Amino acid sequence: MPDVTGALGVVSPVAGTALSLGTVPDPVFSQGMVGPGVAIHPEPGQEGGQEGWQDAVSPIAGTLVKLHPHAFVVMAPDRRRGVLVHLGIDTVQLGGEGFELLASEGDEVEARTPVVRWSPGGVAARGKPSVVPVVALDAGPDALADIAEGAVLRGDPLFLWR
């Protein structure tokens, strides 16, 4: 069993199917250029309210150091580890359409705090993949343990960053 002393537990920001980052149709993520992680493929209608809108939550407790409609980074209290959540691929091109900010850059958040409301179906309808990469920024390739696979709900454990 790996030593997980000081490990950072990361939870799923959205519901869906947890798969390898290699399944992301973008080489920056699929080749691990920004770090290792997990891809969440949202299921249509899963945990979605009106028109399939759902909240994407913070994967860790910390500070929202970057916040865009399509992506956000939360820095852990140790200020050494940041987790990127990217809602869809090439979604910056949507200019915020299909996204609603629920927090502000600089906010202190707990794990599972809603950060962005979005519509994965709306993203897909606009021709963009709705997959959600969750990345341990600048981590080594072997830094993650207990990586989830298969169905996950929003807030379920996703991986440990050791």
From TrEMBL:
Keywords: Kinase, Phosphotransferase system, Sugar transport, Transferase, Transport
Pfam families: PTS_EIIA_1 (PF00358)
GO molecular function: kinase activity
Database matches in PROSITE patterns: PTS_EIIA_TYPE_1 (PS51093)
GO cellular component, one term: cytoplasm
Gene3D superfamilies, alphabetized: Glucose Permease (Domain IIA) (2.70.70.10)
Transmembrane in keyword set: no
Ranges of residues in domain PTS EIIA type-1: 26-138
Protein localization: Cytoplasm
InterPro entries for this protein: Dup_hybrid_motif, PTS_EIIA_1_perm, PTS_EIIA_component
GO biological process: phosphoenolpyruvate-dependent sugar phosphotransferase system
Origin superkingdom: Bacteria
Protein name, per record: PTS system glucose-specific IIA component/PTS system N-acetylglucosamine-specific IIA component
The organism of origin for this protein: Nocardiopsis algeriensis
